[in-house]
Write a structure and sequence with these properties.
C-N_Hydrolase_sf; 6 helices; Nitrilase/CN_hydratase_CS; 208 residues; 6-stranded mixed beta sheet; CN hydrolase domain-containing protein; 3-stranded antiparallel beta sheet; nitrilase activity; hydro-lyase activity
Length: 208
């Protein structure tokens, strides 16, 4: 059976839902996040992770982390097969970015984009008072792309909705026959990325 991934383009959040019963692990652990502006205000960093699951090798990037080439290259090197991208970026150009990543990494790209209306805010919130109840503040745009850049799920910027998409991981091997940016198409004698995966703790005790 081909893996199935659900995209939620909902009123107050953007989520990529996945449940790996056999591994006892949920997508929650990968994609629960703080707004990136707050995440960037602290110095604690985790390395780029790709998780082996019953659906395939899954990794994620949040919002404009998707515009960080070295981060993407690290995920490709770890064999990512299903690349998850949560965002509030509702610009038309976002789909082009997702297609580029899919082609570049020869992986499936699944992007969940938030849909938000002023009515989703609590009563008496300044946003409601300013815009009324029907103002669309973030217009969504969830999408899915296969390893050759074909759009499997087109963005819908008109409403809150849920998409379903089936992926066939055997497409990845075929797609990498002509391009593998961390394999036969790489040029390590010219370009080499060094990734520091040590944890940066506020206190490090050493006895040597």
């Amino acid at each position: 059976m081909d893996p199935k991934v659900t995209l939620e383009n909902t009123e107050s959040s953007c989520q990529l839902l996945w449940n790996d019963v056999s591994g006892g692990m949920e997508m929650d652990q990968l994609c629960r996040f703080s707004p990136i502006i707050y995440a960037n205000s602290c110095f604690y960093r985790l390395p780029a992770q790709v998780y082996n699951t019953s659906l395939g090798k899954i990794g994620a990037a949040i919002c404009w982390e998707n515009y960080m080439p070295m981060y993407r290259m690290t995920l490709y090197n770890k064999g990512i097969e299903i690349y998850l991208a949560c965002t509030v970026d509702d610009r038309d150009v976002w789909l082009s970015t997702m297609r580029t990543i899919a082609l570049e990494g020869r992986c499936f790209v699944i992007s969940a984009a938030q849909f938000l209306k002023s009515s989703d805010y609590p009563e008496n919130h300044p946003i409601r008072e300013k815009h009324g109840l029907d103002k669309v503040l973030i217009r969504g745009g969830s999408c899915a792309v296969d390893p050759l850049g074909t759009v499997l799920v087109q963005p819908d910027f008109t409403k809150e909705l849920i998409h379903y998409v089936d992926v066939n991981l055997s497409q990845i091997a075929r797609a990498k026959m002509d391009l593998d940016t961390v394999g036969h198409y790489s040029r390590p004698e010219v370009f080499q990325l060094i990734v520091n995966e040590r944890s940066f703790e506020p206190v490090v005790r050493r006895t040597d």
